[in-house]
Records
---
Amino acid sequence: MTDPYSILGVPKSADADEIRRAYRKLAKELHPDANPGDKAAEDRFKKVSAAFKLLSNAETRARYDRGEIDGEGNERAAFHPGYAGAGAARGQTRAGGFEDISDIFSDLFTDFRPRSRARKGADLRFRLDLDFLDAAKGATKRVTLPAGRTLDVRTPPGVTDGQTLRLAGQGEPGAAGGPPGDALVELRVRPHKYFSRDGDDVRLDLPVSFAEAVKGAKVRAPTIDGAVEVQVPAGSSSGTLLRLRGKGFPTKGGKRGDQIIRLLIDLPSDDAALKSFAADWQPPKGYDPRMKLR
């Protein structure tokens, strides 16, 4: 015979709080979520729940104590007249100060419900176009993120085309209290009209006149810091290289690369005097402009 008091491990004199505490303790121990695949624990859990359901209702508990129903809530034959049976007993509302079984199950399921794990927010990725000089000297650019939020991006001096900057905490919000993601900024450097980059060096093709190349001269040449005066050596040819130290891109060590200037002799398209000079000019003995190609 099933005795709900024995199933819950409480005496018949137990009050409502004792019965509730005993049930909560056993239900947590035997709950299927805490014992996956354990058929015996599942069966005991069902019996514990049924016992609590009977004893948590003041009327069905009193009828059981008087012997009118058995431990499963079924009518005993001797007391059949005048009662509606187990179905009526199970339909009664709670009484006597007991907590509704559904409230206790709600607490139990809260205990077993998987807790959301804090997750970092997603990273945002976008592209930022920079002018050549901004890449060399650094700049602050305002960008608009997909959600409409604006962000001021500070690019350090010396960034390269294709480089990605990571802005910590500027991405999507985190989940369940997790930290926000990052903003990943891919940099694209636009070509300059006359500068080009070679590692940490800046290269420049500088046109010079025939006379400047032959006699030598001081001429103005642009750099990423502004124009400077450079000396064209006498007897320079197209392709002669000049090096301006410390006029290139910043490096990680706090130094700077150089600016390499390649001289290009620029001849006028129609100059009678130059043509006359070329016609009368005689190269020195042994001179061969293509000697290096032999």
---
Amino acid sequence: MAHPLDDLTPLTWTSATFDDIESIHGLLTAIYYFDEPAERWSVEDLEDAFTRAGAAVKETIFVGRDQDSIVALAWHNFIDYPGDRVRLIGEVHPAYRHQKIGRKMFAWQREAAWDWWQLEHPNRPLTMIAQVDEKLSGKRGLYLHSGMREVRWFIDMHCSFAEMGDRLDRALTLGLRGVRVMPFAAEYAESTRVCHNEAFGSVWGSEPIDEIAWAESLARSQSRPEWSWVALDDDDQVVGYALNASYGEDDLEGWTDHLGVRPGWRGLGLARILLARSLDSFRTAGLDGGGLGVDSHNGGGVELYRSIGYEATDTIIQYECIAPEDFERDDMRDSRQKGSGR
């Protein structure tokens, strides 16, 4: 059966399969060389994502081929975004971008993701997300032209142990009365989830994470519980946590995926203590440094991380639109433009 994108682009499209993972990674490698993006997927990352998507791979991940070569990817990522959200990922090999495949593909993605969502949730709106490096102006223009809005900015920060001096060692001497900082263990998983939901409950755009999604996130192949830490109060409840991971194929830096502190324990230096323990775990594991992503709304976080030795390197912009209301608004705009002769 022909794919709708067959008629819109010069490529032949099919649903992706596990057998395509190596070729998809080859496509991404070419894109990474050309664009130098902050976010990169390894073969292991792709295998993990396909496994978690399960049967939905057939309906949410698509590849475009020129003869036998995969040169484009369209991915509706529902699994990593809890609640009524989907991230639209679209990639085209640099050698094929002059054919305007990306614009046609993204327009189709918005409609296809919405159609798929309505099969199970006919009366619920869907927030569509797209992310891109600030420096990639072409893709930013594509998203804006498609009716999406810039809503959040995420700053990637990195530190190198070779350049930190004694800042980490000094941070490791810090303590807090009434708190024990312990290596993360499975027995703390549920209390950490509750702490996470409380820590981020008032953050714009955040959704509570349920037990199943939390367990899946902890079980990902990239997770490194042996590098992760929790802070316990006198009742052995988690009041702060740092959950760490390893991304990319070189495994040269540890990445702090989640860092949170309950509201009642903020302003006491607990985040600094947890982050210092995390960095010490990275150093003990023989890594070169650490990294994390910061929401630009959290200005205090940027200064905290800089004080330990992190420096900002890249900025990723998040774009959003909401179906169906933004689709209806776009239709009205297009009708007005046609009526005015533009």
---
Amino acid sequence: MKVRIGVAAGVGATDDSCGYLRLVDALDDLGYDSIWVPDVITTSVFDPIAALSIAAGRCDRLKVGTHLIVPGRDPVRLAKELATLDVLSNGRLLLLGVLGLNQPDELDAQSVVAAERSAMLEESLHIMRTLWAGEPLCFEGRFYNYKNVELAVHPKQDPLEVWLGGQVPASLRRCGRIGEGWMPGLCSPDEAAAMREVITSEAQAAGREIDDEHFGMNLSWVTGPMSDKLLASIEARRPGFDPTHTIGCGASGLAERIHAFLDVGFSKFVIRPAEPPEDWSEAVESVSEVLCLQT
């Protein structure tokens, strides 16, 4: 397996341009595979497409990735924006398509109906992939309608892959039908392995195959005991879940978590501090020992 480890630049990492650029430089210098900017509309985290454009222009090796909210965006414009970023980064763009958070403020900002987001995601992916392939787009759907649209800008990567997340049965089936990889969070290694089986079975039923290398996991680390605030936030997101499955203490604890998922066939990891650190560059250096696991 090709093991790769990237870092998600969450709250605090993008509070100012200088701190963000220091983090980009640190990740590149230390040898991390990628920087990820999550897409959360109402927080202080920078817009991912703009922020990743800066990162891609600052270094030649570091890949740039995002957990990108697709519903609520015009898919034709989004297709061109992402194709442009992939060209400008010389094919270093990594994409994980997500529905967005269920928080009321985020849903309002997306200007979408929560129950319609899954269908919007599926229509959008079909539209973007058609345009990225250089084909004329003629599409009549539930949410989008286009007549003979073409893009003159196409991704450097052929194809530009879109991985998916999600752990409910419908999300797993969707990933099997239309996803090119899967990267969830807040699940144990055994649960992840079982859900992977659902995805691969659905893919086979649809007459397709997902590369064995295209399964990853979002992991976190702490530097001491987990705070009550952190534990409460995890309990709210997934009641009864044991957070030690995905959160390690320091570099050694994080390495143990990575090994546990490697043992069940997951090889791509996006890591982040479980709580915002005072200095992001120092934080990623403090756990950089895990980079010896990259192959």
---
Amino acid sequence: MRFSNSNKPKELCPIISAISVIGSEPKLLVIRYLLEGPKRFNELQRLTSLSSKTLSNTLKELENLGIVKRNIVNTRPLIIIYELTEKGKELKRVFDELRKWGEKFASVEQIYQQG
């Protein structure tokens, strides 16, 4: 469903805005796994099955949005750890509710039938 600017329901605007920020599959996957705790790039890549380029771009986008922070551990070799910011951690309740809804209404079979 698309809304033109003139008929966009006011109560939906924050929902649409939030989905436009975090609504891509790569972003959702990265946030999902970072909600479990900090992760290194290779660990995130293994968990999400995203290509290096897609994961790198996704992490940069989430960092620019203030949802993910990149921590550099000054060791040899350097270790880079990604974790959620406070803003990112606020998404936990949202993800918990989405998970409940998905378990109740969105079966894997339905997803693949649509694709």
